[in-house]
Amino acid sequence: MTPRGFAPDEIRARATAAQDLMARARIDALLLTTEPEIRYFTGFLTRFWESPTRPWFVVLPQGGDPIAVIPSIGAELMARAGVNDIRTWPSPRPGDDGTTLLAATLNAHGPRIGLPMGDETHLRMPLAQFDALRGLCPALDFTHDAGITRTLRMVKSDAEIAKIATACAIADRAFARVPDIAAPGVPLATVFRDFQALCLAEGADTVPYLAGAAGQGGYDDVISPATDAPLMPGDVLMLDTGLTFDGYFCDFDRNFALGDTGLDADHDRLVAAVEAGRAAAMPGARASDVHAAMRAAEAPAPGAAVRLGHGLGMQLTEWPSLSPFDQTVLQAGMVLTLEPCVATEAGRILVLEENIVLTETGNRALSTPATRMVRL
Amino acid sequence: MTPRGFAPDEIRARATAAQDLMARARIDALLLTTEPEIRYFTGFLTRFWESPTRPWFVVLPQGGDPIAVIPSIGAELMARAGVNDIRTWPSPRPGDDGTTLLAATLNAHGPRIGLPMGDETHLRMPLAQFDALRGLCPALDFTHDAGITRTLRMVKSDAEIAKIATACAIADRAFARVPDIAAPGVPLATVFRDFQALCLAEGADTVPYLAGAAGQGGYDDVISPATDAPLMPGDVLMLDTGLTFDGYFCDFDRNFALGDTGLDADHDRLVAAVEAGRAAAMPGARASDVHAAMRAAEAPAPGAAVRLGHGLGMQLTEWPSLSPFDQTVLQAGMVLTLEPCVATEAGRILVLEENIVLTETGNRALSTPATRMVRL
């Protein structure tokens, strides 16, 4: 049974590692506003982020422990997470929804405040509030966090990897039961609904993501919601899930054949591309190398496939990108998806996705690699 | 059967209504970046937003149709949603992840660009990208959207109300089946997992939110994830769900009694507070009036209950707030949660939440109002 939560030492070590990098980048404090950033440095896990109403802040000073500047509704849970310095206000409070409290905290720890502001980040607070905050902190320099949150979060600890592995195992078991819920005549929307229930039955805490498609000779895109169109003989059915265990995602898909799809050779190319990706994915290689290896194996690939996989963890998609432009040097502990895509004879696409973790010597599969399409 | 999607006329009418307000506020174009903002003006519905990797933009000019400036992976679905002007780039693309394309679009429609930047909003793009965008648009004035998106989204159409009502009916049916899954000895985490499956079985598309708690004499907070602690005789069990139908949420809770909780009188006070809220919730009243009516009925209430309900729709929580500070004048078509909270003798809390829609003459219940705690 994978334990829930993290040892207090691990949460503390993340802060210490960040502080080392902050010292080198001459950053006096980090300002964090999003769910994964705040959870990473505190262990604070709640689905309450689904409500966009209230802003939440954590300040990590160069010396000392993280400071939570949060709505009072979260104080109890943040304290249980192990944070000692919790400053609250009764939110929502228009006009000053934590702004003065945050300004006072930052002013005591400046002047250089690092914010995650690079690719795949955003600032989770109203823009007008950020402007007001800067007005209250005229002596502070709000600057780039020098990629510190990205650098740290990209390399997962053993405890994090165990949670992702557990999520993958749950999805493996749910995919194995798809023959129970999908057959010709069943509407795709019903398959989506029932598959999410299978994920829960197999142990998922939540199912934040499910995409998929069904069609003859492949499908057209992989982001559409399901329609009530029934599955047809000869269809390929693809389901791509991001379920969570203790706040960590898996992200992989499976293709199922409703009888004879004529796509077995295409699927074989996808399996070969995944194998080529795995052969290339080792410490010291670059993210772009893994992309190139898969790209070579999957030909002819559709032109739009600029990204054939990505990081995975507290979010469904994280850095790095397996893309020609991403020169990130891979390290043990990075968790990646390998997601090759082929164009079919029908002018459609077929996508396969697997999850792996990099080890000291290569990598280890987290999803049980698919070798062929299961027949329904 | 509630129809999915919206008539093209309705989506167009939203843009026209925004353009009327833009003319009055002398805004030349709106820049929208978040899921609900973009969906509201285009009908673009996908769970792909779970991935934080790519920025998405919609520009609504003062004259003409919405312009989607989006990653190419979304072009197919955006076209099916009915948007004609779609401009794409192969995202992710570090260094220019749509920035120049967006800048060119905005520069053609400026100079005054309105952004949602008030309470309960955020800018869903990297801060560094926003800085780069402003650098590419020196002649533009990025300004407050004058609350236009808030004003429009607060009042729901009949088609939107039907979707929320459907979500509520699904949750009603799922709550009715809680006796099948909860009993003394069952771990709370198992109840959470099984209740989400019940929501799906009853017709939910997704279950983005489930919170809850169980305890003797009430509970301490309503945002914690479930633990493996088993339910005990005498516990009150509370489940609060935000499930969706076609992209629209319900948000209400139910309290269940595992035998004798000693909390029947507290629950009666909550029911009375909901009734007081419903009596006050009518067109022309203010959000603060509804708060005051519930507050008077629920005494003694915990000090922290600054908000006793809120708007509901494409997000789990939306404007207005049923709070002393919110002077929003209520109108027919607004969908609200009524969420009184009482302090119990044990020093804990008990919360009840219902969903209503304002009509021309008062309001109509969307969740079937609870009258007592169901015994498990």
From TrEMBL, chains A, B:
InterPro entries: Creatin/AminoP/Spt16_N, Creatinase/aminopeptidase-like, Creatinase_N, Pept_M24, Pept_M24_MAP, Peptidase_M24B. Residues 163-360 form the Peptidase M24 domain. CDD domains: APP_MetAP (cd01066). The keyword Ribonucleoprotein does not apply. Residues 14-155 form the Creatinase N-terminal domain. SUPFAM superfamilies: Creatinase/aminopeptidase (SSF55920), Creatinase/prolidase N-terminal domain (SSF53092). It holds the Pfam family Peptidase_M24. Keywords: Aminopeptidase, Hydrolase, Protease. GO terms for molecular function: aminopeptidase activity; metalloexopeptidase activity. This is Aminopeptidase P family protein.
